[in-house]
Amino acid sequence: MSIFEYNGSALVAMVGKNCFAIASDRRLGVQLQTIATDFQRISKIHDRLFLGLSGLATDAQTLYQRLLFRHKLYQLREERDMKPETFANLVSALLYEKRFGPYFCQPVIAGLGDEDKPFICTMDSIGAKELAKDFVVAGTASESLYGACESMFKEDMEPEELFETVSQALLSSVDRDCLSGWGGHVYVVTPTEVKERILKGRMD
Amino acid sequence: MECVFGLVGNGFAIVAADTSAVHSILVHKSNEDKIMILDSHKLIAASGESGDRVQFTEYIQKNVALYQFRNGIPLTTAAAANFTRGELATALRKNPYFVNILLAGYDKETGPSLYYIDYIATLHKVDKGAFGYGSYFSLSMMDRHYHSGMTVEEAIDLVDKCIMEIRSRLVVAPPNFVIKIVDKDGAREYAWRESVKDVAVASA
What keywords sit in the KW lines (chain B) (predicted)? Predict the structure, then answer.
């Protein structure tokens, strides 16, 4: 079994009209065994920037701690929050530093940039950025997620419709993947508020 | 074949571990205590490579004591768990410790808690957790019978059910178990469950 499939994960981020949604599954497993059904894969960096980390859970935790530290230092020096584009560059640089002994993670970054323009991107475990205008996916269920998102996505969705689309795409994809699932965690972020919702899907 | 499991009840946390020290097909002793009392209100139940287990848990115990000497107050359970994870994560890509840990503690402000820390430094706060081949049986028993806010009697009953299951269904089941509890009155040994007693050594 691949090291990326040791813990199991599913992540998706989608762009809407002046908003974005980022969603993950909730399973933490050790190969075939499920350890917990309330694992947080998405973390808030600041009010308008969220980071999801799929792949090996220990590296996701280490990477999150390092990135949070770097962002706090940035806030002290610059006296402002990091832009999503800048943060994506930081993540990419941190991952490439370990080019020949990498972190086994695939991050998904979603944020609101200048003029509230939504920004999403993903990268591989050595920091190769993949910017997208519509959606990005990561994790063991990524192939299913690509298909589900491609068919369900529409341009300029309002937050409520975006939430429905992301939720349906996530749940239908993790249902086809034994290593991810046990519900979903969805964040819908607009310039004025962040809505966090927990989904109940097939609990297996 | 090492079995470690634990759960959180109403104002207490309980951990149980088998007590056999095994090398290949030989059982060196069957009264090896694998649950270390970290400080007055914390227990660390460890399973894995025996040298690493003893060395690593003693290292954590001494560092927790050092913090208390330096700062005059003890570490919270969450802080101790994160420290342990940090040490495992730092060592992971240099000289990994093959030790799986269940850290149980009681804090005045937050009550009892149980942390699952596996050997590759994945940290998660859980209500019930287990390691080893025995986990296939004890986790299922706990999934069936556990509910939040159990009394000590109910929890011990569940622990005994898990031990019975391990004894009857695991092919190389360890004969003896030790149970330790931590609550507002501190961390202490609760009971042993022995089915094979070590023969006493005749004095010279």
Answer: Cytoplasm, Nucleus, Proteasome
